[in-house]
Write the structure tokens for this entry.
Amino acid sequence: MDDLRTQLEELKKRLEVLEENIDPVDELMLSIKARLKKRLEGGGALPGIDEEKASKILKALANPDRIRILKMLAEGGPMGFKEIKEALGGVESPTVSHHLKLLVRTGMVKKGEKYELSSNGRLFLRLLEIITALEEVEE
């Protein structure tokens, strides 16, 4: 039990450090902070990694065209299939459809009359921005 308390205290300290370094205008990071804080205050801990779910999410993010789709939706708002296909330039319809299905299935994009970036999509796009800003990735 003491080990659990020690882990919780360590997580709280890490959260405080994160809190100090978050730009107050970055609503997405503030939302993450609030959700983590609520989870930790309730005596809970962060869940373990679901490997299957994590690999599906990473697969959805492992294609430049899918990342472009997320960026387009973040910058331009909801878009129809035809608009997305035209903006990708040269990508065939079945491929665009496949990309969108993966993004919808992983919850990054919502499908209604048009395709729209979800809050999870915004989160993952922001995380990609942070990761790519940290250092160059070597192939």
Summary: The longest helix spans residues 2-21. Helices lie at 2-21, 27-41, 51-61, 64-76, 81-88, 93-105, 119-134.
